Amino acid sequence: MLAEFADFSDAEVQLFNKNISKRCLDKNAVLCKEGDVLKSIFFIVKGSFYQSYYNPIREEDIITDLHLENEWVFNPESLVNQKPAKTTIKAFESSEVIELTLESLHKLIVISNKFLQFNKLLISNPKLSFYDENMTPTEKYNYILKTRPQLIQTFPLSMIASYLKIRPETISRIRANVSF
């Protein structure tokens, strides 16, 4: 989980391991709810999560991001600015995460510049939008089919449709025309 950010020594990895905690969550458990200020980042060891906000006009949750095993999950805006989150992060299934609190991360940064590099890379590359807003619905679906097929295998079509900002009927039509 650290290797993609820097070449950490064994001592730095041990230090990191002393500053994290493991959490097991049931399906629908909330890591951070809309309105809370995020104080931790989470690495998904097992399971999957989604971020959403409630749209009172449409009377439904709007999916803003989907997260799978071996990914970091957090709300960048809330974490960096220490402002209330605009989305809720919820477990889609029984899951296990590793939690690194902001306080622990700051302690690690003081000890090693590699953790500063880790922090900068993690924060500077949030998945704000994985696709171009000008893509057609078919292009959006084909993009995730090609780059993140696990999403389609993990989440129901209604959630994929919300994530892609298209109607469920549209995604059904697209899938009928896609050959696997």
**CATH superfamily name of the largest domain?**
Jelly Rolls
CATH C-level class of the largest domain:
Mainly Beta
Cα(first) to Cα(last) distance is 31 Å
- What's the overall geometry? globular
Would you identify the CATH architecture of the largest domain?
A: Sandwich
How many domain units?
A: 2
Note the total helix count: 8
DSSP helix fraction: 40-55%
Number of strands: 8
CATH-derived topology of the largest domain: Jelly Rolls
Determine the strand fraction and express it as a percent band: 15-25%
Structural class by secondary-structure content: alpha+beta
Taking the sheet with the most strands, its summary is: 4 strands, antiparallel
* Low-pLDDT runs: none
Question: Using only CA atoms, what is the Rg?
Answer: 18 Å
The run of helices and strands is HEEEEEEHEEHHHHHH
What does this structure look like?
The strands form 2 sheets. The chain has a 4-stranded antiparallel sheet with strand order 1-8-3-6. The protein is globular, with a radius of gyration of 18 Å. The protein folds into 2 domains: 10-124, Jelly Rolls, CATH 2.60.120.10; 137-177. It starts with 9 loop residues before the first helix and ends with a helix. It contains 8 helices and 8 strands; from the N terminus they run H-E-E-E-E-E-E-H-E-E-H-H-H-H-H-H. The longest helix is centred in the middle third of the chain and has 12 residues, at 113-124. It has 180 residues and is α+β, with helices and mostly antiparallel strands. The model has no long low-confidence stretch (mean pLDDT 90). It holds the Pfam family cNMP_binding. InterPro entries: cNMP-bd_dom, cNMP-bd_dom_sf, RmlC-like_jellyroll. This is Cyclic nucleotide-binding domain-containing protein. Residues 4-109 form the Cyclic nucleotide-binding domain.
